[in-house]
Amino acid sequence: MKKIFMLLVMTVAFTSVSAWANSYRYISAADVKHQVETQENVLLLDIQVKEEFDQHHITGAVETTAYPVKSETDRGKLATILAQAKTSTEPIIIICPRGAGGAKRAYDYLKAQGVSEGRLMILKGGQAQWPYNELLTKK
Prior knowledge:
The protein is α/β, with parallel strands linked by helices.
């Protein structure tokens, strides 16, 4: 009985630590809108594929076309902005199609490359849920 209890406690502890270790910071569209409108220093890092970026992106966003950030080729596209990301102190907001897996992989990559996690955020809901058309650049 004691072994079962200890196993249960260890399982709960491991699960809690794993969930905490994989947490991500999100930012709302309203907060990003405020930063863009007030011209706060922020790096809007857009990872959408080229076709989607060309259709619509937040004005001022840096195009990387790194989505889905699964391959070395995708990560290499993020490497092009790595020097800027490492040397600046501005917050980095990752914009992906829906604010999910691709954004998390970009976040993890940048963090692994030495970018402070305190500067990394993901646009909640991604480009798909961006409600402010007046701040979009469209073709």
